[in-house]
Q: What sequence folds into this?
């Protein structure tokens, strides 16, 4: 879990409005039609992905409490969860 969380901590970036997002991202529910008529799903900050990342961060925080270690990493996650 920690490795996955570290991956996202390294890859989240601020969008033009200052929100942390994944970029590129992919939406499985939404699409747009490209000039050639094909469907495109690439986007910035797909909601499903961001929900999974938030859940991962929250579960890491719970594991830190249960295992009573790596509190510094928990503090780093706090900065992204708030």
A:
């Amino acid at each position: 879990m920690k490795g996955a969380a570290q991956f996202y901590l390294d890859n989240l970036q601020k969008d033009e409005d200052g929100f942390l997002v994944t970029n590129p991202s992919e939406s499985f529910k939404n699409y747009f039609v490209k000039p050639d008529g094909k469907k495109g799903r690439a986007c910035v900050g797909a909601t499903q992905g961001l929900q999974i990342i938030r859940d991962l961060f929250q579960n890491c925080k719970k594991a830190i409490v249960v295992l009573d270690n790596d509190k510094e990493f928990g503090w780093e996650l706090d900065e992204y969860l708030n």
Q: What stands out?
A: The mean pLDDT is 93. The first helix runs from residue 2 to 11. The chain has three helices and six strands. Strands lie at 13-14, 20-21, 25-26, 32-33, 39-40, 42-43.
